Amino acid sequence: MQTCLPIESAFPKAHHSLQSRVVWGSRVVTVGGDAPVRVQSMTNTDTVDAIGTAIQVKELALAGSEMVRITVNTPEAAAAVPYVREQLDRMGIDVPLIGDFHYNGHRLLTDYPACAQALSKYRINPGNVGKGNKRDTQFGQMIEAALRWNKVVRIGVNWGSLDQELLASLMDENSARSAPWDARQVMYEALITSAIDSAQRAEDMGMRRDQIILSCKVSGVQDLISVYRELAKRTDHVLHLGLTEAGMGTKGTVASATALSILLQEGIGDTIRVSLTPQPGEARTQEVVIASEILQALGLRTFVPSVTACPGCGRTTSTTFQELAKQIDDFLRAQMPVWREQYPGVEGLRVAVMGCIVNGPGESKHADIGISLPGSGEAPAAPVFIDGEKRLTLRGDNIAQEFQVIVENYIENRFGAHAVAQAS
């Protein structure tokens, strides 16, 4: 028999960036360095509606968003920001708020100091801060506000609003090359140059490198991978990762998961946002769920207990296992805002809901707690496995409700205060 080395386990490479601190009161969200990859999101409410915006921010925060961005585009929106913050504080939601500024951010941050104070981070798009001689002045005003209030900034370049003067200059340089680059490669260079040069201007004004987060947003998967691989080579700034305008439903989910997973596996990216267009009637929180699932699937973080369920086949003509799997998954997610505090470690729980005897018992044994429901033609019995051992068998019409109670009891016994006390 040939002697060989053990197969190396796959795991994302380590990050090598600085670390930023996004702060509100006693809440500190570290980003980059040895911090976990952070999840963030953005509201789609009119910020002028302070109550509605605060409610959506709360929903996103409870779903797992560790920072939430809000639009600050008008004087009325800027005036409303302190009230959004006030409402959140009253509700006990200390998630940091990020102000999304374009075109007039320099005026809003100057004219509405309460807004500048209430935000924990400013998003600055160098392609939208002004043209010609105004660009440096207006960019400088936003950096001055960040310095005055000790805020972190994200310099977020977007290829939909790229600095056209910079792009034209790079195109001219490219045309003079003996072997000109492809136009797309010039655009990549423009994105990266805009981000890094803007960061350097901010540093020249007095900002620390660890106060600056960079992003170069594009909407194509391969484009994002190309840009961020090069960006990560050229800078140690904290990197915000995400497709812009990823799309709706399956398309947006798959595109975001593909691009982000490849880069995160390579150790690129310190905070992520899934820019998902909600389908009609779909909650805004879906983008947070997908971002969390990407990180959990890669083994970078755990947010909610995982539910393993078989896809179904001809052996499982009943939909009972599908309904139970969804019921358990929905139940666990709904409880997590409370359980995170009440049952430390519960997010690592593994639950299996299987549909027949082929893989059901085996998968259930590998989980912390699992149930193997009867497939077509099998005996109407559902063995329950706890910590790898068969403990009981459920029968009858109330299997779903009984299994949910078993899961709840298991969580209390394993992660509850008395279990922790006994372990210590």
TrEMBL record:
It catalyses: (2E)-4-hydroxy-3-methylbut-2-enyl diphosphate + oxidized [flavodoxin] + H2O + 2 H(+) = 2-C-methyl-D-erythritol 2,4-cyclic diphosphate + reduced [flavodoxin]. It holds the Pfam family GcpE. Its EC number is 1.17.7.3. Transmembrane segments: none annotated. Binds 1 [4Fe-4S] cluster. Residues 29-290 form the IspG TIM-barrel domain. Coiled coil: none annotated. The keyword Ligase does not apply. The keyword 4Fe-4S applies. Residues 307-408 form the IspG C-terminal domain. Keywords: 4Fe-4S, Iron, Iron-sulfur, Isoprene biosynthesis, Metal-binding, Oxidoreductase. Pathway: Isoprenoid biosynthesis; isopentenyl diphosphate biosynthesis via DXP pathway; isopentenyl diphosphate from 1-deoxy-D-xylulose 5-phosphate: step 5/6. Signal peptide: none annotated. Gene3D superfamilies: Dihydropteroate synthase-like, Sulfite Reductase Hemoprotein, domain 1. HAMAP family: IspG. Converts 2C-methyl-D-erythritol 2,4-cyclodiphosphate (ME-2,4cPP) into 1-hydroxy-2-methyl-2-(E)-butenyl 4-diphosphate. Belongs to the IspG family. This is 4-hydroxy-3-methylbut-2-en-1-yl diphosphate synthase (flavodoxin). It comes from Polaromonas hydrogenivorans. The gene is ispG.
